[in-house]
């Protein structure tokens, strides 16, 4: 634990809001460059011993209980975006899949053309430049299958995915690129196939900012981590500069931390909400929102679970939860009838989550059949590109407030016809994959929400089109940065963490340069 | 109508380890309106219908009833839904299924208790927590042998010094 303390009136510090993939990484990168940081985290400090192999207990521990006010039409009305609160943020809960966005996804508008109803955009960062940062992020996180790091061994669920994929003619199937140690590395052990990756890795084989970036930042003597501190509002001193962050400390008292710069990395729903809740006379529509884009283009991933009862036992819960990846449908191939692509990713749950995810609200013989054949299940999750739509957005709830009296986020998302076409294709392929091996029964289930919340403070070259520039710096306010997945102009088909880390590493050098040049 | 009476019923049911359905039918036949033990018997029967396993252990279903009783004790609205649901079952023809608010409450409360219960896991073949036993690395994570082994370029080697399962 660090013991650095900065004064509330110290206006030389950078205040970072959120300690997950974006905020935790940025804090370390800035501290390594000699910059003093205060890291505000709404959740509490965890140790490895807090990570129980208990699906319900861990949901209670680190999934934030305030449900957003969701006014989406079906099927998205069931979704409740997951946001993890706790030191480490969503890197406590993530599965470890660390995948790059591909060239066609980084140029979605150019690759897919104009699509009615979709606010497609190209990323304003050259793909070859981003590739350099991806390589550095993979090195930092120890991603398997990159550098000299071996892939993880294949568990039983992978063997089914591999063989079924081959039956369909797929060629790009592996245990995947994961930030989970396949051999001891960086002071952390190799994976011992425990399962329960999503409940926090009990041995720390999976990368999380909790036990990598944050303690390293503290070791510099330049980081003060304040856990149990919820940012309420970002305050500004004039039209062009933010001056600090008002937050509620662990006792519920309001404190104002002054700042030289503020970096927001609270996960897309909360990051947009914080800017909207920071409206003032000078910024009546929310901070940094002259474009009107704050909260808009809220994307996730098109996703569905496909699980199948196989003719012989699989015991899919044994081992790394998401060590299995089919990449053959990832590309953009309009002959399939939709733009963008999707991944098939192995996934497994314990019995409690399996039952509740696959058969929500179902009881009686069907539930009994699932339970009695649980050992025979194999499973995957479809993860596809979710097209941005201007009116899919995070707003402020007009009716519901949190315990601090601030409006909860309101969420409204509609499915784009492209999402539906993609899912239709993917569902058919995933079901066929298991049927090719003699599956006796398939389960297809949507989810009640992912942690993949993206796009609500999108990046753009022009201040008219987005909230931040290609460095995550707000177009309207030079010393206000966005450092999480809300910067993404589009979602791609990959889990977002690696990209968030790469962008945070890239942003740190830019912020340091701006400070040295006294531009901020 | 005391809480003790309810506990007595559950304790007896647990201690006797009777095939609950037989026991419950006996209780229900003898039931008088407002009879707490009969209420619990009806709840137990309803919980068993949620998850009609061929080889059902008794304890998870008793635990579900305890949780429903606890919910009723702290939430008057839930208590009312449960009472109304039981009354509807009594009025209905034999074998009638739970319905309405009562069913929704059973699904929300009892199913999570059931699927999270170690005795249900035993029936399902789910081994649960693995940290205390060193994960599944040496306990069958890759023991599936009814399909061909994927090639070495699709996956990494099992760390040396450990069992390789299917090979």
SSE diagram, text form:
The complex is a heterodimer of chains A (520) and B (167).
Chain A: E1 14-17, H1 21-32, E2 37-40, H2 55-62, E3 69-70, H3 103-106, H4 108-112, H5 127-141, H6 156-167, E4 173-174, H7 213-219, E5 223-226, E6 230-238, E7 241-248, E8 254-258, E9 261-264, H8 268-277, E10 302-309, E11 325-326, E12 342-346, H9 351-358, H10 365-372, E13 377-384, E14 393-401, E15 407-412, H11 417-435, E16 441-445, E17 480-482, H12 497-516
Parallel strand pairs in A: 1-2, 1-9, 2-5, 3-15, 9-17
Antiparallel strand pairs in A: 4-11, 6-7, 7-8, 10-13, 10-16, 11-12, 12-13, 14-15
Chain B: H1 3-16, H2 20-30, H3 36-50, H4 59-74, H5 76-91, H6 100-115, H7 118-124
3D structure, described in words:
The complex is a heterodimer of chains A (520) and B (167). By secondary structure, chain A is α/β, with parallel strands linked by helices. Chain A has one domain (14-516): FAD/NAD(P)-binding domain (3-Layer(bba) Sandwich). Helix content of chain A is 25%, strand content 17%. Chain A has helices at 21-32, 55-62, 103-106, 108-112, 127-141, 156-167, 213-219, 268-277, 351-358, 365-372, 417-435, 497-516, and strands at 14-17, 37-40, 69-70, 173-174, 223-226, 230-238, 241-248, 254-258, 261-264, 302-309, 325-326, 342-346, 377-384, 393-401, 407-412, 441-445, 480-482. In chain A, the strands form four sheets. In chain A, strands 4-11-12-13-10-16 form a six-stranded antiparallel sheet, covered by helices on one side. A five-stranded parallel sheet of chain A has the order 5-2-1-9-17, covered by helices on one side. The model of chain A has no long low-confidence stretch (mean pLDDT 96). Chain B is an all-alpha fold. Chain B has two domains: 3-124, no CATH class; 131-167, no CATH class. Chain B is built from seven helices and no strands. In chain B, α4 packs across α5 (76-91). The N and C termini of chain B lie far apart (62 Å). At the A-B interface, α6, β4, α9 and α10 of A face α6 and α7 of B.
């Amino acid at each position: 634990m660090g013991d650095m303390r900065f004064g509330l009136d110290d206006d030389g510090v950078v205040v970072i809001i959120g300690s997950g993939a974006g905020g935790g990484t940025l804090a370390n990168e800035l501290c390594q460059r000699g910059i003093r940081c205060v890291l505000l985290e709404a959740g509490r400090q965890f140790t490895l011993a807090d990570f129980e192999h208990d699906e319900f207990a861990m949901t209670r521990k680190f999934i934030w209980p305030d449900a957003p006010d969701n006014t989406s039409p079906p099927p998205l009305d069931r979704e409740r975006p997951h946001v993890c609160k706790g030191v480490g943020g969503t890197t406590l809960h993530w599965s470890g899949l660390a995948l790059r966005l591909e060239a066609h996804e980084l140029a979605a508008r150019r690759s897919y053309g104009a699509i009615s109803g979709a606010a497609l955009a190209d990323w304003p960062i050259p793909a070859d430049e981003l590739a350099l940062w991806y390589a550095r992020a993979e090195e930092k996180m120890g991603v398997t299958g990159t550098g000299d790091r071996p892939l993880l061994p294949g568990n039983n669920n992978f063997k089914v995915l591999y063989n079924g994929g081959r039956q369909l003619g797929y060629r790009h199937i592996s245990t995947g690129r994961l930030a989970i140690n396949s051999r001891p590395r960086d002071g952390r052990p190799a994976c011992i196939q425990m399962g329960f990756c999503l409940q926090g890795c009990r041995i720390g084989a999976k990368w999380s900012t909790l036990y990598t970036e944050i303690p390293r930042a503290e070791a510099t003597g330049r980081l003060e981590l304040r856990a149990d501190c919820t940012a309420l509002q970002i305050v500004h001193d004039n039209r062009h500069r933010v001056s600090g962050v008002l937050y509620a400390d662990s006792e519920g008292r309001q404190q104002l931390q002054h700042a030289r710069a503020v970096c927001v990395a609270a996960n897309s729903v909360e990051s947009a909400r914080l800017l909207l809740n920071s409206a003032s006379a000078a910024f009546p529509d929310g901070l940094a929102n002259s474009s009107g884009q704050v909260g808009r283009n809220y994307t996730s991933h098109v996703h569905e679970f496909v699980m199948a009862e196989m003719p012989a036992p699989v015991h899919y819960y044994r081992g790394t939860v998401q060590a299995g990846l089919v990449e053959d449908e990832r590309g953009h191939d309009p002959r399939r009838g939709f733009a963008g692509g999707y991944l098939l990713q192995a996934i497994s749950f314990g019995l409690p989550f399996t039952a509740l995810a696959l058969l929500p609200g179902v009881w009686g013989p069907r539930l009994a059949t699932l339970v009695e054949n649980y050992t025979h299940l194999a499973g995957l999750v479809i993860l596809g590109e979710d097209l941005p739509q201007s009116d899919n957005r995070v707003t402020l709830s007009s009716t519901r407030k949190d315990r601090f009296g601030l409006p909860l986020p309101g969420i409204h998302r509609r499915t784009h016809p492209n999402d539906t076409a993609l899912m239709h294709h993917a569902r058919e392929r995933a079901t066929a994959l298991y049927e090719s091996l003699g599956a006796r029964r398939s389960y297809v289930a949507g989810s009640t929400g992912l942690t993949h919340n993206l796009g609500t403070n999108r990046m753009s070259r022009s201040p008219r089109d987005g909230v931040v520039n290609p460095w995550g710096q707000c177009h309207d306010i030079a010393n206000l940065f966005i450092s999480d997945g809300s910067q993404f102009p589009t979602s791609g088909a990959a889990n977002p963490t690696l990209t968030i880390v790469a962008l945070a590493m890239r942003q740190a050098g830019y912020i340091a340069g701006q400070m040295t040049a006294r531009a901020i | 109508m005391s809480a003790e009476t309810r506990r007595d019923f559950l304790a007896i049911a647990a201690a006797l380890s009777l095939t609950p359905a037989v026991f419950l039918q006996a209780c229900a036949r003898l039931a008088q309106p407002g009879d707490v033990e009969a209420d619990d018997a009806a709840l137990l029967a309803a919980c068993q219908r949620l998850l009609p396993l061929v080889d059902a252990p008794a304890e998870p279903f008793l635990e579900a009833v305890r949780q429903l009783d606890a919910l009723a004790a702290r939430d008057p609205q839930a208590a009312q839904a449960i009472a109304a649901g039981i009354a509807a079952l009594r009025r209905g023809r034999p074998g009638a299924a739970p319905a309405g608010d009562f069913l929704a409450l059973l699904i929300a409360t009892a199913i999570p208790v059931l699927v999270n219960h170690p005795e249900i896991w035993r029936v399902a073949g789910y081994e649960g927590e693995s940290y205390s036993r060193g994960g599944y690395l040496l306990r069958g994570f890759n023991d599936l042998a009814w399909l061909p082994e994927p090639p070495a370029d699709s996956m990494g080697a099992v760390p040396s010094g450990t069992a390789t399962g299917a090979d």
